[in-house]
C-alpha cells in the first residue's frame, strides 16, 4: 500500500537510513542497548498489507502478538498460535483408485502440453441418475412415455446418449442464445435434425429422435448442465454488474493511439504476412506438382514393367531366345545415357530460393498489386478484341459483303476532283442548329467522321491530371479514303454542292449542307442524320471501314487503321464508364455470337 | 489493538434492546455461542430448515471463513441485541457490509464514478482522494485479486459519494423489512435455501438480495480427489449448486458437478492427468506447471472459481487472460495432484510478482506455501526484477510471507557472518533475494533487527531470530527440507507481443 511505503520511508528518512549503504551485522550480545535508542522498546509500526478491517481480527492478532513478543526477546510463548480454518477431511465412500485410475507414468522430460480442457473431457454433457433411468428404459424398448418403441434401434450406449443430449443442448444454445431471458419454444426435432453436421456421430443421429423426446420433456429454460454465468457480449448493464454470479467479464480493450506511423506499420506487416502466405502457397503448389509428376513417373514405370512382362511372357510362350543381353534389358531398367550436363546447371544445385530475412526490398515488390491485375485484365480484353477482329477478318476473307458493296466505285486518282460550289442559301431555318464547336483545327466535313464532334473544352482535357487512355471513336467517312487528296474547303456558312460522276456514267449532284456534327455526350452517339427528314444519303464506304465500324460499335472502341493518320480524339473522362459498360455488353453479345460463328 | 467495533465520537449509537426469536432479522448483532464462548455476531441471512429458523452469522473480529449457520438455540437472547440502523447506515456496519459483499451494485457504481472522475480534476472529487489511499482499480490490466471493495471502503471513509450509499441503504432496509415481513407471515417464509436462492434470483427487486447472496457462502461442501473440504467464502459457481449437499470437483480438469453420477461419468471421459500447460520445474516431490490464462481459459477459470472458495479478496469480475498461473503439483501414479498455485500478471505495472496465491486447504500446514512463495521469487530472480505480492494480503498470506522473508533474510545474514564479511546494505539484501527494499525494511523492522548503535544503523541478528532459525534447521534435519532447487527450473520469462497487449491478451 502506498500508505505503507510513505510511512516507512518517512520513518527511515528521520533516521537517515541509507538503503544503499552497507550496514554492519551484529549479534544481540555484541551491541550495548542504550535506553534512549529511539527504536528501543518502540517497534516501528509496519504496515502489514492486510486490510485494516481484517488486520484487527482476533486470530491474526494473536499470532502477530506472539511473534512480536518473540522478536522483543520475550520467552517463547508456550503454545503455537495459529489461524483456525474450516475442516478438511478424507472423503467418505470414495474409491479413489476407481475414480482416478493409475494411468500416469512420469515422462523422462518435462511435460509440454497444450490441449485444452475441452479437448480432454470428451462430450461435456454428463448423465445424471434421471438420465440413467431413462436410458435403461430406452434400452428395455420403451420410449419416454413408457410406450413400446417402434424403431428397431437396439441398444443405446451411455456415450451415444450423452452425445445426443449434448448435441441437443449445444444446438439449443446456438439457435436460441437468449432462451434464458425470453421465453421461446424449444427447437423442434426437425430443426434439430436440420442443424446436424459431420460432428455428430451416426449412432447419435439415429438415436436423436427418442432422446429428443426425453430431452424435450426435461428441458427447462436453462441449461441442463449447470454453468457459470459468463457474458460473452460486452454488455455492461447494471443488472449484470450487481449479480455476484456473473464473472469473467471481458476486459475493456486498451485504447491505442492511432497514428500514421502505426497505420503504416500495420500495412507493412499485413503486406509481409501476405507475401509469406503467398510464398507458402507457391511452395505447396510446387510440392503438389512434384508429387503429381512422381506419381505419373511411377505409373509409367509400372506400365513399362507390365509391358515388359507381357513381352517376356510372349517370348517364353513363343520360345523366343533373344540375343545375348537382350533379355536382361527386359528385367533391368537401363540406365539412360548420361546427359551432357549443361555447364550452368552443374555448378548450381537446384534450390528454392526463399526470401531471406535480411532482404530489404519492400514486400510489395514481390506481391501482385491490384493495379497489375487490372492492367492484365485490360490487356486481356484488348487481346481478345484483337483476336476477335482477326477472326472476323478470317471469316470474311473469302466473302464480299454485297449489302455494303459501294454503289459508287472509288474515285480514280486521276479523276478531276469535283469542286464544291455554293448553293443558294435557302431559308435560314434548319431542323437543328448549326454546330458551334470551338475546335479550331477541326476539318469541316460533312461526313460522320466525328473528330471534333465531342464538346470537349481544351482546358478540361489538359486540366484532367492523368492522361486518360485515349479511346478512338471512329466512324469512317464516306469517301474519299485518302484524306491527303481531300482538299479542305474553307468553313463556309453557305451550303455547297457539286457534280460528280458515278458508276455507269451516272451523274450525281451532291449537296453539302450545314448539318450539326454528330454529338457525343456521355458516350451516346447521336447522329443528327438519323433525325433528318430527308431521305438518307448513301455513300460508298470501304469494306475495311465497314468492318472497323462494326467492331467499333460492338466494342465501343475502334482502333483506327494506320492509314487513317494520327487523328485521335480524347474522351472526357466521364464518358469512359459508359463506354466500358457498353463494351461489356457488347462483349457479351459477341461471346454469344462466337460459338455460332465458329460452328459455321 | 483496537477492537473492531470501537465507536468513534459522534457516531450514532446502535439501538440496543432485547429481542425474541421472531424479531431477529438480518443486520442484528447478538451474542452467539462459538466453541463454548459467547461472541458478538451479525446475522447475515435467515432460513427455515426443517421447520426451524437457522441463522447465518458473522462473528465480530473473526475472519469471514468462520461464518456459519447456527440454530436458534446458539443465539443468546438473554442479552440485549444491537439493532441495525436502517435509515442511516452506521459507519462500521457500512464498512463491514462493504467488506463483505463482493460485487454489489454500489461498488460498481463507485467504480464507474472513479473511472469517470479520472478525467476530472483530481482534487475536486472526494472519490479521488480514495484513489490515493487505495489503489484505483484499473479496468484494463486489473489485478486478479483486486477487490473492488478496497476502493469503496476508502470512498466510504471520506463520506463522499452519496449516490451509491443511499441506494445501498435503501436496499438494506428493504431486506430487513422483507425479512421482518417474512417472519410475520409464516406462509412467506422461504422454506428451503433453494427456494430462497430461487426467489433471490428471479424476484423483482434484485439488488439487495444479490448482496445478501454473496455475503453467504454458497457451497456447502466440496469433494476434490480424496478430500472433502468446507469452503470458506462465496464463489460464483453455478447458482444451482447452492442447493447441492456436495459439489464434486475433478482433481485434474477442475470441472465441477453438482451430482455424483454426473461426476462419475465425467471421470470416465476425462483424460487430463496434470495441469494443461508446460512443466517448468520438477524435483522429487513437486512439479510446477505454467498455464497461460488466454490459452487455457476454461482450466484457469475453473481454477479461479475453486480458489475463490478460499480467497476472500479475489475477484472474478474480469477474465483470466492477462495472467499466468504457476501451479504446484504432487506426483504419483494417478497423475499430478494440484497442491496450490499463484497467479502472476503477464505485465504488471506495479511490479508485483504474485497476484493471488493459495495452497489448497487439504495441503495446508505442510510447508507448501513456502515453496510457492520461494518459487515466485526464483522467477523474479530470473527476470532480474524485485518482486512483491499484490496487496491486500490475507491473514494467512501475511503470515506465510513473513515467515519466508524472515527465513531468507536471516539465512543470508548468517551466511555473511560466516563468510567473515558482516556488512550488507538493505538494497543488497533485496537484490540478492529479489525482494523489494520495502519488504526487506518491513521484515527487519518487524523482527526488531534494524537498530541504531553508536550513531550508526546496524542490523542485529537477534537471539530470537537465530533461535527460530535453529529450530527450523533442526526440524528440517529431522523431517527433510523442502525447497525449490533453482537448477531444476527450466523457465524463461515469457515474451508477449505488443499486439497481445493491445488486444488484451
Ligand atoms: Zn476432469
Task: Let me know the number of strands of chain B.
Answer: 21
Low-confidence blocks of residues of chain A: 1-14, 39-43, 433-466, 468-472, 482-489, 517-533, 558-600
Strand runs of chain A, count: 9
Radius of gyration of chain A (Å): 48 Å
What small ligands are held by the chains? zinc ion
Can you tell me the overall shape of chain A? extended
User: From the helix content, strand content and strand pairing of chain A, which structural class follows?
Assistant: mainly alpha
- Here the CATH topology of the domain at 273-488 in chain B equals Aminopeptidase
- Which regions of chain B are unreliable across 5 or more consecutive residues at pLDDT < 50? 1-8, 89-143, 145-193, 196-208
Largest interface comes to: A-B, 117 and 155 residues
State which percent range the strand residues of chain A make up: 5-15%
Domain MYST-type HAT (chain B): 214-493
InterPro entries (chain B): Acyl_CoA_acyltransferase, Chromo-like_dom_sf, Chromo/chromo_shadow_dom, HAT_MYST-type, MYST_HAT, Tudor-knot, WH-like_DNA-bd_sf, Zf-MYST
GO molecular function (chain B): chromatin binding; histone acetyltransferase activity; transcription coregulator activity
EC number (chain B): 2.3.1.48
Amino acid at each position: 500500500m502506498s500508505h505503507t511505503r510513505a510511512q516507512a520511508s518517512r520513518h527511515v528518512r528521520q533516521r537517515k537510513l541509507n538503503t544503499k549503504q552497507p550496514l554492519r551485522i551484529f549479534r544481540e550480545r555484541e551491541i550495548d542497548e542504550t535506553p534512549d535508542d529511539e527504536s528501543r522498546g518502540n517497534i516501528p509500526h509496519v504496515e502489514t498489507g492486510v486490510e485494516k478491517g481484517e488486520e484487527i481480527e482476533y486470530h491474526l492478532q494473536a499470532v502477530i502478538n506472539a511473534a512480536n513478543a518473540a522478536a522483543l526477546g520475550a520467552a517463547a510463548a508456550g503454545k503455537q498460535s495459529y489461524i483456525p480454518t474450516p475442516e478438511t477431511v478424507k472423503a467418505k465412500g470414495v474409491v479413489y483408485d476407481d475414480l482416478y485410475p493409475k494411468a500416469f507414468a512420469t515422462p523422462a522430460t518435462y511435460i509440454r502440453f497444450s490441449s485444452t480442457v475441452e479437448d480432454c473431457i470428451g462430450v461435456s454433457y454428463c448423465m445424471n441418475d434421471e438420465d440413467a433411468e431413462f436410458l435403461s428404459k430406452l434400452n428395455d424398448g420403451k420410449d419416454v412415455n413408457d410406450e413400446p418403441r417402434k424403431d428397431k434401434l437396439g441398444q443405446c450406449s451411455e456415450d451415444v446418449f450423452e452425445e445426443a443430449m449434448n448435441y441437443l443442448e449445444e444446438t439449443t444454445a446456438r439457435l436460441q442464445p437468449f432462451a434464458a431471458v425470453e421465453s421461446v419454444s424449444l427447437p423442434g426435432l426437425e430443426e434439430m435434425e436440420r442443424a446436424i453436421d459431420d460432428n455428430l456421430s451416426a449412432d447419435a443421429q439415429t438415436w436423436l429422435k427418442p432422446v429428443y423426446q426425453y430431452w424435450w420433456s426435461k428441458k427447462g429454460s436453462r441449461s441442463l448442465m449447470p454453468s457459470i454465468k459468463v457474458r460473452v457480449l460486452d454488455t455492461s448493464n447494471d443488472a449484470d454488474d450487481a449479480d455476484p454470479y456473473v464473472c469473467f467479464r471481458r476486459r475493456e480493450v486498451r485504447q491505442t493511439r492511432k497514428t500514421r506511423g502505426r497505420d503504416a506499420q500495420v500495412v507493412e506487416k499485413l503486406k509481409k504476412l501476405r507475401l509469406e502466405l503467398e510464398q507458402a502457397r507457391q511452395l505447396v503448389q510446387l510440392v503438389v506438382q512434384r508429387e503429381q509428376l512422381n506419381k505419373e513417373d511411377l505409373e509409367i514405370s509400372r506400365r513399362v514393367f507390365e509391358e515388359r512382362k507381357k513381352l517376356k511372357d510372349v517370348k517364353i510362350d513363343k520360345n523366343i531366345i533373344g540375343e545375348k543381353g537382350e533379355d536382361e534389358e527386359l528385367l533391368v531398367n537401363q540406365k539412360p545415357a548420361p546427359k551432357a550436363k549443361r555447364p550452368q546447371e552443374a555448378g548450381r544445385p537446384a534450390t528454392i530460393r526463399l526470401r531471406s530475412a535480411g532482404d530489404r526490398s519492400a514486400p510489395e515488390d514481390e506481391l501482385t498489386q491490384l493495379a497489375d491485375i487490372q492492367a492484365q485484365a485490360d490487356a486481356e480484353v484488348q487481346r481478345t478484341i484483337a483476336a476477335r477482329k482477326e477472326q472476323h477478318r478470317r471469316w470474311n476473307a473469302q466473302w464480299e459483303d454485297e449489302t455494303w458493296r459501294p454503289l459508287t466505285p472509288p474515285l480514280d486518282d486521276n479523276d478531276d476532283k469535283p469542286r464544291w460550289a455554293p448553293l443558294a442559301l435557302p431559308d435560314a431555318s434548319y431542323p437543328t442548329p448549326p454546330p458551334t464547336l470551338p475546335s479550331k483545327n477541326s476539318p469541316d466535313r460533312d461526313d460522320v467522321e466525328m473528330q471534333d464532334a465531342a464538346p470537349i473544352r481544351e482546358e478540361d482535357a489538359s486540366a484532367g491530371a492523368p492522361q486518360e487512355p485515349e479511346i478512338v471513336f471512329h466512324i469512317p467517312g464516306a469517301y474519299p479514303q485518302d484524306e491527303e487528296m481531300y482538299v479542305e474547303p474553307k468553313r463556309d456558312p453557305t451550303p455547297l454542292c457539286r457534280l460528280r460522276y458515278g458508276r455507269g456514267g451516272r451523274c450525281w449532284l451532291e449537296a453539302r449542307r450545314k448539318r450539326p456534327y454528330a454529338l457525343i455526350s456521355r458516350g451516346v452517339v447521336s447522329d443528327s442524320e438519323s433525325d433528318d427528314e430527308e431521305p438518307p444519303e448513301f455513300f460508298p464506304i470501304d469494306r475495311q471501314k465497314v468492318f472497323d465500324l462494326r467492331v467499333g460499335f460492338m466494342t465501343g472502341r475502334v482502333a483506327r487503321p494506320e492509314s487513317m493518320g494520327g487523328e485521335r480524339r480524347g474522351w472526357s473522362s466521364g464518358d469512359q464508364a459508359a463506354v466500358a459498360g457498353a463494351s461489356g455488353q457488347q462483349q457479351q453479345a459477341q461471346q454469344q455470337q462466337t460459338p455460332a460463328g465458329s460452328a459455321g | 489493538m483496537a477492537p473492531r467495533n470501537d465507536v468513534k465520537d459522534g457516531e450514532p449509537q446502535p439501538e440496543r434492546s432485547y429481542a425474541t426469536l421472531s424479531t431477529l432479522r438480518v443486520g442484528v448483532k447478538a451474542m452467539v455461542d462459538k466453541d463454548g464462548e459467547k461472541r458478538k455476531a451479525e446475522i447475515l441471512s435467515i432460513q427455515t430448515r426443517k421447520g426451524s429458523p437457522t441463522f447465518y452469522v458473522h462473528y465480530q473480529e473473526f475472519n469471514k471463513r468462520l461464518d456459519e449457520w447456527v440454530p436458534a438455540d446458539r443465539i443468546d437472547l438473554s442479552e440485549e441485541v444491537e439493532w441495525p440502523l436502517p435509515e442511516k447506515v452506521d459507519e462500521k456496519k457500512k464498512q463491514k457490509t462493504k467488506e463483505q459483499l463482493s460485487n454489489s451494485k454500489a461498488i460498481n457504481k463507485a467504480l464507474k464514478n472513479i473511472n469517470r472522475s479520472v478525467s476530472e480534476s483530481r482534487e475536486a472529487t472526494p472519490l479521488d482522494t480514495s484513489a490515493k489511499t487505495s489503489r484505483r482499480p484499473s479496468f484494463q490490466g486489473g489485478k486478479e485479486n483486486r477487490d473492488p471493495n478496497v476502493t469503496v471502503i476508502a470512498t466510504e471513509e471520506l463520506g463522499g459519494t452519496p449516490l451509491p450509499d443511499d441506494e445501498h441503504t435503501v436496499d438494506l432496509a428493504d431486506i430487513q423489512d422483507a425479512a421482518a415481513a417474512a417472519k410475520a407471515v409464516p406462509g412467506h417464509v422461504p422454506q428451503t435455501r433453494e427456494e430462497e436462492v430461487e426467489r433471490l434470483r428471479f424476484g423483482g427487486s434484485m439488488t439487495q438480495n444479490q448482496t445478501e447472496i454473496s455475503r453467504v457462502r454458497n457451497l456447502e461442501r466440496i469433494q476434490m480427489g480424496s478430500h472433502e473440504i468446507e469452503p470458506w467464502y462465496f464463489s460464483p459457481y453455478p447458482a444451482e449448486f447452492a442447493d447441492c449437499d456436495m459439489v464434486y470437483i475433478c482433481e485434474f480438469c477442475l470441472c465441477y458437478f453438482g451430482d455424483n453420477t454426473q461426476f462419475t461419468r465425467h471421470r470416465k471421459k476425462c483424460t487430463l492427468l496434470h495441469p494443461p500447460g508446460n512443466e517448468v520445474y520438477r524435483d522429487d516431490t513437486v512439479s510446477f506447471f505454467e498455464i497461460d490464462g488466454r490459452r487455457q481459459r476454461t482450466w484457469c477459470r475453473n481454477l479461479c472459481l475453486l480458489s475463490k472458495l478460499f480467497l476472500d479478496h479475489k475477484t472474478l469480475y474480469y477474465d483470466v487472460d492477462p495472467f499466468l498461473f504457476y501451479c504446484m503439483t504432487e506426483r504419483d501414479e494417478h497423475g499430478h495432484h494440484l497442491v496450490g498455485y499463484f497467479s502472476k500478471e503477464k505485465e504488471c505495472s506495479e511490479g508485483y510478482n504474485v497476484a493471488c496465491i493459495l495452497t489448497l486447504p487439504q495441503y495446508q500446514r505442510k510447508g507448501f506455501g513456502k515453496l510457492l512463495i520461494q518459487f515466485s521469487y526464483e522467477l523474479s530472480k530470473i527476470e532480474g526484477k524485485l518482486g512483491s505480492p499484490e496487496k491486500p494480503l490475507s491473514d494467512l498470506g501475511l503470515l506465510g510471507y513473513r515467515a519466508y522473508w524472515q527465513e531468507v533474510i536471516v539465512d543470508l545474514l548468517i551466511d555473511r557472518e560466516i563468510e567473515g564479511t558482516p556488512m550488507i546494505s538493505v538494497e543488497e539484501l533485496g537484490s540478492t533475494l529479489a525482494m523489494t527494499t520495502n519488504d526487506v525494511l518491513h521484515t527487519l523492522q518487524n523482527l526488531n533487527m534494524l537498530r541504531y548503535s553508536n550513531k550508526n544503523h546496524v542490523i542485529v541478528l537477534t537471539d530470537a531470530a537465530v533461535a527460530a532459525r535453529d529450530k527450523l534447521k533442526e526440524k528440517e534435519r529431522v523431517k527433510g527440507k523442502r525447497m525449490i532447487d533453482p537448477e531444476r527450473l527450466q523457465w524463461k520469462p515469457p515474451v508477449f507481443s505488443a499486439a497481445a497487449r493491445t488486444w488484451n491478451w
